[in-house]
Amino acid sequence: MLYPAPQKRSARWPGRLMTIAGFLAASAMVNPAMAQSQTQTQTTSDFDQCLAELGETAVRAGVSRETATAVVAGVEQIERVIELDRKQPEFTTTFADYLNRRVNESRIQQGRELLKTHRDLLNRVTRETGVPGPYLLAFWGLETNFGSYFGKMSVPGSLATLACDERRSEFFTRQWVAALQIIDEGAIPAEQMEGSWAGAMGHVQFMPTVFLEHAVDADGDGRRDLWNSLPDALMSAGHFLDSMGWNGDYRWGREVLLPGNFDYRLSDGRELPLARWREMGITDAFGRPLAQDDIEASLLVPAGHRGPAFLVYQNFDVIMGWNRSEFYAIAVGHLADRIAGAGGLQVPPPEDLPALSRQQILDLQQALASRGYDPGPIDGILGSGTRSAIREFQKANDLVADGYPGTPVLDAVGIDT
């Protein structure tokens, strides 16, 4: 899920700050004993002040004071959450490592078994949302390994900790308020609301704002329960994908084979009709001609020209709306195909490509910029701007212009591998 740019804490804290004791004292009409106890042990730390204001923010957003008071009283700052939020991986993950870890035989076989076990439920979700069962299982498998691990962090505690940190305060304040609204509606008690360190929850790891907008009560028990009700969780996932424009008439994309003289500059994200890609000599993964179809498709080569190539359709963009990672979206699509009975990739991703460090990517971005190729922000992230700059550099230096920072590119700009 995308996060907004960091916000200044003061932008979210208008006016006077209130201590926890002050907030609970103001709530004494709800629980006088709790308020009195907290007043006797007043705290003045920044977190306590922020937490009290978060409680008032939730009340102003319509959360009952009783719920806000109880949740605030039970929240503690979680230092580990800040550590995880600040932590940046030293090395990038290669496509081979990412895909092989997530789309493995164990997960494929379990997905196929669950496809049979939950066929009636999955067919119902497909009828109502248009999303086929294998895709729902793929999301479920990647998010929580089919419900085997939801995360053990207190969601109110994690969100309060992040909301009181200035990096992304505005975003996580919205999530905090949404989490309290979920508790207030009776979906789950606060003490049972556990999830990831960033606040994602339940079988399909919805953030609280996504829960409020898209979660449904599919089992008819009067609650939207994404922790204990698989019908609620899978139907909610289907509704979320449908809301983002899932097209039930098409798949996510497909592996394709490229002709030997292919111009890899065309893998720059442009959309062309499938029939146009066919005219260029692209075939399916088994060498058969593509359909004469006008559906728009984009070409991806996530591991460069030595790895697999994919033509992806509108539903790929929908998957990206769930998680803004091309690797993730390819993994969802490929896992769904495998669960549905398809075989492995015809061109496996090469496993000998180096995992680049963030410093190497920074050095590469700086080297490209110094040579007149704009990589976008110099941030150590291999994004679309950096890939575009690499592609232009490759073209100018008679290299395969696939936008991949392989050894030839790094050698050409003087970066050790």
Description:
Among the domains are: 9-74 and 152-201, no CATH class; 358-413, no CATH class. The chain contains 20 helices and 7 strands. The longest helix has 16 residues, at 169-184. The protein starts with 8 loop residues before the first helix and ends with a helix. The protein has helices at residues 9-12, 20-26, 32-40, 46-60, 65-74, 79-86, 95-102, 105-117, 119-129, 133-144, 155-163, 169-184, 208-214, 230-243, 274-279, 314-322, 326-339, 358-370, 384-396, 407-413, and strands at residues 153-154, 194-195, 253-257, 272-273, 283-284, 296-300, 309-312. 49% of the residues lie in helices and 5% in strands. The protein is globular and about 70 Å long. It is mainly alpha-helical.
Bin the helical content: 40-55%
Spans of at least 5 consecutive residues with low confidence:
1-18, 28-44
Sketch the major β-sheet. Answer: 5 strands, antiparallel
Number of strands: 7
User: What is the strand content?
Assistant: 5-15%
Structural class: mainly alpha
Strand order of the largest sheet: 4-6-7-3-5
Tell me the distance between the termini: 32 Å
Radius of gyration: 24 Å
Number of helices: 20
Shape: globular
Mean pLDDT, all residues: 90
Secondary-structure element string: HHHHHHHHHHEHHEHHEEHEEEHHHHH
